Amino acid sequence: MKHIADGTILNNGIVMPRFGLGTYKAEGEEVAKAVTTALELGYRSIDTAAVYGNENEVGSSIAASGVPRDSLFVTTKVWNTDQGYDETLKAFDVSCKKMGLDIIDLYLIHWPGVDKYKDTWRALERLYAEGRTRAIGVSNFQIHHLEELLKDSEIVPAVNQVELHPRFIQRELHEYCASRGIQIEAWAPLMKGRLQDNERLQGIAAKYGKTVSQVVLRWGLQNEIVIIPKSVTASRIKENSEIFDFELSAEELAAISGLDAGERVGSHPDKVLF
Ligand SMILES: NC(=O)c1ccc[n+]([C@@H]2O[C@H](COP(=O)([O-])OP(=O)(O)OC[C@H]3O[C@@H](n4cnc5c(N)ncnc54)[C@H](OP(=O)(O)O)[C@@H]3O)[C@@H](O)[C@H]2O)c1
Known about the structure:
Blueprint: E1 7-9, E2 15-17, E3 21-22, H1 28-41, E4 45-47, H2 55-65, E5 73-78, H3 85-99, E6 104-109, H4 117-129, E7 133-139, H5 143-152, E8 159-163, H6 171-179, E9 183-187, H7 199-208, H8 212-222, E10 226-227, H9 234-241, H10 250-257
Parallel strand pairs: 3-4, 4-5, 5-6, 6-7, 7-8, 8-9, 9-10
Antiparallel strand pairs: 1-2
């Protein structure tokens, strides 16, 4: 990992940048500016979702950036209340329209929910077959959801986007996905900014002249995880991208993974039942 746009090859052969900008809880002018700043700094992957209510602004900033479309990787997600075959096809059209895009690079099922994700997945398989999305995947799927999905699906998800950071390393799920060619992507890779006071991370950061956030993100990259840290603060958007000029040792990686405490900051997927 030497460059901000370096990618991982997904199970269908397309390349997804290993690093991108998250946009959850960022709306209006704030998110528009954040996306513009990120693209100027060389970010080439943007993560949004229908439920974030910012697809219009994300799309406008992309269009205004002048970055060639084929250099960008845009992810969005079908929201829980739009699950189901027909509903998902409609939701996809709405997302494309809001962003002003014909093709979405990665379309994800946002949460498994209860009993519709197989129908939703069939819709994603159709969108993929029609060339409207370059890859399809899931988010917040536990092993049992994936096992169930894989029983009937034609396409193995390219990505599973889940909560993952040093306090919640998801070792079992990560290994399961890796063994089946499903790329793990971390949401809340910074644990939403809650790791700043950790002395172990501060010690490693001091050694490299880096910040705690930079060390945590570098740990993600070196563990083959796709990371999408969110910030609407220009200085932090820059800080988070300056992680391609140092390398953590095997001992440091292990020490950071040793912070795992099974501690979530978001919802448990088995409890998001709508
Ligand atoms: N699939 C899902 O269910 C799901 C769920 C949650 C998130 N996501 C995606 O994953 C992305 C990332 O997750 P997240 O936004 O929840 O959490 P995150 O990226 O771990 O943390 C974002 C928080 O950390 C702060 N921050 C950013 N850079 C920082 C730095 N260098 N130093 C200190 N604080 C910093 C941000 O503040 P400022 O913005 O104020 O700078 C914001 O409050 C989301 O934006 C979204 O795109 C997906």
